[in-house]
Amino acid sequence: MSVNIKIDLNNPVQTNFLGNNAVYHGYAGMPDKDGRVYTEEQCEIEADRVAELGLRVARTFYKWYAWEDETKTWNWESERCKVFYKWLERMKKRNVQVSLNTGWCMPGDVNGAGWNPDTPFKYEDCWTNQVKAYAKWVSESLHQLIEVRGFTNVTYIELFTEPQYALKLKETPDNKHAYQLWADCAKAVTEQLIADNRRHLVKIIGPNEGSTSTSVMNKWVADNAADYVDIFSSHNYQDFITDENYNPDNDNAVLLPLAGSRIQQAVNLEPNKEYTLTFKIKLKIADRLTTSGALIFGAWNPEKLAGFNIIEAGGQPIQRLNRKSVKMIDASELDDGIQEISMNFNSDSAKKAVIGIFRDVKETASIVKLLAASLTVTGETTNLLTHPDLTAIPAGKLFSIKDAIEFMGQVWKHANCEKERSGDPYWHLRGCAQTTIGYVEKTGKPVWFDEYNVRIEKGHFDEPWHGTHRAASMQSLMNSGIQSSLMWTLIDQQWPDNHCTNQDAFVDGDHRYGVMPVLTRSLVPHPVYYSTGLVMKFMGGAPGTHIYEGIGSDFLHATVSKMPDGNISVLVINNKSKADDFTIDFSEKLGVKLNRRLYDPETIVPDERAKQIEADLVFDVDVVLKDRLPAGGVAVYTTIK
Q1: In the predicted model, what is the mean pLDDT of the chain?
Q2: Measured between alpha carbons, how far is residue 460 from residues 388, 455, 612 in Å?
Q3: Which of 63, 246, 493, 548 could form a disulfide with 560 if both were Cys (CB 3.0 to 4.6 A apart)?
Q4: CB proximity list for 432: less than 8 A, separation 6 or greater
């Protein structure tokens, strides 16, 4: 079949697109206690490849490199500082702007309670003074980097990463909520920069919330601390990506395909009654010995929910109906077949509740299916739920979440991605980003998506189809309307003095999450290097760049970028396991010749040259673009030579 796409060139989703960017740490050449240090030549090769990929903004971990713990003094000519300065200079020569992650753990990088216990600010006697010392360091860093040494490519700072996780600490400073701890730091940094006449030097990005589907911390910051940020940000990771695994048994069921998926229903209760809640489920999972996460189900307080959001992954408060109204079942305890999970709770004084189930299963090669639900007064048989049979589907219809909402008439609510359709991953990150945009829209400030990747493929980033899947994630974020995205991470990097091996893709301190291996392993990049470069380099990113969304079908969508220099690029991705034709109808005449550059996972052959894919075809385009893409094909049609 052919996919037909219409693109309205009078209706951009973003008018100031700053590019598909990435996390890329300034580690090249950093000292390492075991001598794992790049040569100057390797540092230059790495920087050249960053330029070849088309990176415009690099987000880097920025530590207190100038602090000397033995003397408790600052030395801005320390060995680590000098190495970092060289990295900044390499980025400046290649026109890459830098965003400094000024602090990572919240509040640990301020008070020493996190995985950076050597923080120089912990020596102050209280949280207030620690925050002041932290803010002075941020301001002095900008002075030393920009005003003294001329690194004018340092244009952004990001205040911490995933600061909502402070809720996992048993005690937080002054017993404050995590959001307020972050706001304390943001306020102090803003005021210090103003006092030092440096506020104009950078834009502040925050709160860098993640990994969350609903980004409620951004909503809180928009309501309570918007003056302290120039750009809002949050992030998530793509869990479910393939077209073939969405519903492998073709069951009639409500599907919860992603961590963060949930459905729920409002019900009336009688006070002081005992109730029994039961869900009939089927959990398909690859390996119960390695999976993590749980199914969470029960009764929530409808008066305190933001719409129908039961719970958000990432540590936010859970608005239970009461202390015993919610139950968690570890995914590893559940079998493959159809089974029932059940719990009892007392309504206490409540007359209303929201009944629901939330998927927090992180195993991505899995799917949760709901077949039926029941709420009864304990000991009785009358089911108090409407549409309790979740298999009652019109004949021949795949029962996605979208179908559930339409068929059940909004009785069951779904609160994840509004347009999640038949498992197409295009709607996942796009929906997550648009949720954040909606929360902060009233501030008039832009939104960045500060991390993403394809979580399901961790450890398989050298496989050709990962190139397709990562490009598809980039496309969904462009089409969401965000101003910029930051891939985690651009390249594999050896973290200095680090020997950890863990499930977060670290192997002996080598963080293997990027588009090419560390150069001491191989000079040959992964296939994803080439698809990433196509999107990063040729879809542009500069003030005044317009982005237009082309919604297709069957895992095939499009994006148009119109750049202020007059160049036009069209991105089309066929993110499925069979070839397909497409037609794009533009709302106005283009009258251009577009050079096609095609990434095909079946034919890509990486080599040490690491040069971008050359154009193979030229299309004369007025108002229609037609082509056929192979399975997994990523194509950019562009006026850029």
Answers
A1: 88
A2: 40, 10, 22
A3: 548
A4: 212, 213, 215, 234, 236, 417, 449
